[in-house]
């Protein structure tokens, strides 16, 4: 991006932030990225009003909040052109120094688990973790797959999932307690073998549909549902068997995000319009043409609402999870990544 364009973006974000009334950041906030304005909006979910708008850098795609709800991390993607994570103080609120990922270019999918920021690096065909306590990248693992894109890290970081868009696969990484051929216990006087992310990892590559991108793990941890943008299908993976057990002809071409509701009953997919499936019946039960969603989906933890990034409408749609109807919207130019931040 040119210097003048960058300065224009920063000036716009500063002007927008200055136009907002001075108010403290609520303990619970909705975070919404604007790819168009290259900003992060901090929104009060009770009023759907913006509290602050912060610049986040070139081509922001995904956002995640720390476990204590005080910090947000944003991936600056650029299809491999960029290599930074933006860091936002959510209490201030203000931009903090960027995290430079070096050769790990094209960061996209994000997770915050066990005090660390986990990320995909699409151009490097890898995933990694950054430790805010030490300010260092402390682990990198190659997938050997093309366009390693979205990410899910299980609690304890013993299992990691990624989708690989151009390889039409899902990588399932399982942590083992020691590298292959290493002794089961360290020699006398040596420190114990490291736990995650140290030790060795086994990768299972699971073929799914073409254009595998958005995915989610069912709340019971038994299944992974993957939206296949090129096929318009959804692949259902049995995690115990580590294979696809069903392919749903959901007619969701272009689908790029998929999320379970907190109770596991429903699955939302953004595919031009918002599509809702019954998880048990594995069938489409509703399509909402007035929710032209093509970006992120966020479920409110209490199960009352869902939020859907609608780039075509320059807004984030608010969906009532009981009626499955749109009940509001938040104006955001070209929205994409969404996250929930809650301070104790």
Task: Summarize the structure in words.
There is one protein chain. The chain is mainly beta. Helix content is 5%, strand content 51%. It has one helix and 28 strands. The chain has one helix at 3-19, and strands spanning 28-34, 39-44, 49-55, 60-65, 71-76, 84-89, 94-100, 107-113, 116-121, 126-131, 136-142, 148-153, 159-164, 169-176, 200-207, 212-217, 223-228, 233-238, 243-248, 257-260, 266-271, 273-278, 283-288, 297-299, 305-310, 315-320, 325-331, 335-342. The strands form seven sheets. The chain has a four-stranded antiparallel sheet with strand order 3-2-1-28. It is globular, with a radius of gyration of 20 Å. The relative contact order is 0.12.
What attributes characterize this protein structure?
344 residues; mainly beta; four-stranded antiparallel sheet; disordered N terminus; single chain; 1 helix
């Amino acid at each position: 991006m040119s210097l003048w364009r960058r300065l224009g973006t920063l000036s716009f974000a500063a002007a927008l932030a200055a136009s907002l009334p001075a108010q403290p950041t609520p303990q619970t906030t909705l975070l919404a990225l604007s790819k168009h304005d290259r900003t992060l909006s901090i929104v009060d979910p009770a009023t759907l009003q913006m509290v602050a708008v912060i610049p986040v850098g070139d081509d922001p795609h995904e956002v995640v909040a720390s476990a204590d709800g005080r910090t947000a991390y944003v991936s600056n993607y650029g299809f491999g052109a960029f290599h930074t994570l933006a860091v936002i103080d959510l209490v201030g609120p203000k931009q903090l120094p960027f995290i430079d990922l070096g050769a790990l270019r094209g960061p996209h999918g994000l997770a915050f688990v066990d005090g660390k920021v986990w990320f995909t690096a699409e151009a490097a065909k890898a995933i990694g973790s950054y430790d805010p306590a030490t300010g260092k990248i402390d682990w990198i693992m190659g997938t050997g797959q093309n366009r390693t894109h979205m990410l899910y890290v299980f609690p304890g970081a013993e299992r990691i999932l990624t989708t690989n868009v151009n390889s039409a696969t899902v990588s399932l990484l399982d942590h083992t307690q020691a590298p292959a051929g290493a002794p089961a216990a360290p020699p006398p006087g040596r420190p114990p073998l490291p736990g995650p992310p140290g030790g060795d990892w086994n990768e299972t590559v699971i073929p799914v549909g073409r254009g595998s991108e958005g995915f989610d793990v069912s709340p019971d941890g038994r299944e992974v549902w993957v939206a296949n943008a090129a096929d318009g299908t959804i692949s259902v993976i049995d995690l115990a068997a580590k294979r696809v057990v069903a392919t749903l002809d959901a007619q969701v071409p272009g689908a790029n995000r998929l999320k379970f509701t907190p109770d596991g009953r429903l699955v939302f997919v953004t595919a031009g319009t918002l599509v809702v499936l019954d998880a048990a019946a594995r069938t489409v039960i509703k399509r909402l043409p007035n929710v032209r969603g093509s970006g992120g989906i966020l479920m409110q933890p209490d199960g009352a609402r869902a939020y859907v990034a609608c780039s075509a409408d320059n807004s984030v749609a608010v969906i009532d999870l009981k009626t499955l109807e749109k009940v509001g919207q938040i104006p955001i130019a070209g929205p994409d990544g969404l996250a929930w931040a809650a301070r104790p």
